[in-house]
Design brief:
mainly alpha, about 0% strand, about 350 residues
Length: about 350
């Protein structure tokens, strides 16, 4: 049975990320309402959820199968946006080569699109990295130990990089600053997946109350800009936030809290969740025009134009490019090469 609460969580996180990007260039909620920390945290949450889903898919796929499934899921939206950027902005066509290998995000100087390229690159390659660990280290306990060590090492790197005149702050330009975030959160998602089926909590009024608190706490963090100024995106602990998200994903997965129980009754979210990656990459194109024209038109007009263009591009990408042109091109290439 499909878990609609987790699908809703994925939709909600993507909305926060996109809306945070829009508000960063076009302060719809006012200059005091900085949503970038919330979109920053939403990326962490999305990575945890992605790692959790990837581990669950290991029950159905081998390493190559999972790698190809993930690749063919996120490459079409990326390619669509890169092709549009080449056509509209006359960027170098050689960037298509990097796009095919999802390299942007792994090297600081190879980014193509605002925010989107590093996100998908880190997401794909780190899922492959942790999937390899959990498939080829046959002892699950040792795989978990290795994942904990990797998480701890990159947590130390991220902390050291924020200190003045530290070793990592000096050489931070050599590696992408987003990689530690990916290792910590995606690794946390894999750890959660490995133990979620083994830890079963009997539902009671106390357990429902505890997990409902965690669910409410998570949602309030994203909406606290309505109550108080948003904190700096570097003021929260990556490891602590990953642990909180693991509790939340576990609660939504097992429907332990009242919020997840109620959301799971909304089966319509399944129709929206398939557009998540398409919506994310599609918003990068009109975002460029928001940045260029933010001072030339009223904010409300730009906002509605941005949302309308993003929705149209999302539908075109998913139904025309991902579902028709891309599979046809892949089949044609296989026929020629093999």
């Amino acid at each position: 049975m499909r878990n609609y609460s987790l699908e809703f969580m994925r939709i909600f996180l993507m909305f926060i990320i996109v809306f945070g990007h829009l508000n960063e260039h076009l302060p719809i909620l006012g200059k005091s309402a900085d949503l970038s920390p919330h979109s920053y945290m939403a990326v962490q949450s999305f990575f945890v959820l992605g790692g959790f889903f990837a581990y669950m898919n290991l029950k159905k796929y081998d390493f190559c199968g999972l790698m190809m499934k993930t690749y063919h899921r996120i490459l079409p939206p990326f390619l669509f946006s890169v092709i549009l950027s080449i056509y509209l902005w006359h960027t170098s066509s050689t960037l298509l080569i990097k796009a095919f290998f999802l390299l942007p995000g792994l090297y600081p100087s190879s980014q193509i699109l605002y925010a989107g390229d590093w996100f998908l690159g880190v997401y794909f390659w780190l899922i492959c990295f942790f999937s390899y660990i959990y498939i080829y280290i046959y002892n699950l306990k040792w795989a978990n130990y290795l994942t904990v060590i990797v998480i701890f090492c990159f947590f130390c790197i991220s902390v050291n990089a924020q200190a003045d005149n530290s070793f990592m702050s000096t050489y931070w330009h050599v590696i992408p600053s987003e990689l530690p975030r990916g290792f910590i959160s995606i690794g946390g998602g894999f750890l959660l997946g490995s133990v979620s089926d083994k830890i079963k909590i009997e539902k009671s009024l106390l357990s429902i109350a505890i997990f409902t608190f965690f669910e409410f706490y998570f949602l309030r963090l994203f909406f606290n800009f309505l109550l108080s100024p948003a904190p700096s995106k570097y003021s929260f602990n990556l490891l602590e936030w990953t642990i909180v998200n693991c509790f939340l994903v576990y609660s939504f997965y097992n429907l332990n809290g009242m919020i997840s129980i109620l959301i799971n009754k909304i089966d319509k979210v399944n129709y929206v969740s398939r557009y998540v990656f398409s919506f994310f990459m599609a918003h990068m194109i009109p975002m460029h025009y928001v940045y260029v024209n933010k001072s030339n038109y009223p904010a409300a007009e730009i906002c509605f134009a941005f949302l309308g263009a993003t929705i149209v591009l999302t539908l075109i990408e998913y139904h025309l490019f991902s579902k028709r042109l891309y599979p046809y091109a892949v089949a044609w290439l296989r026929k020629i090469l093999f």
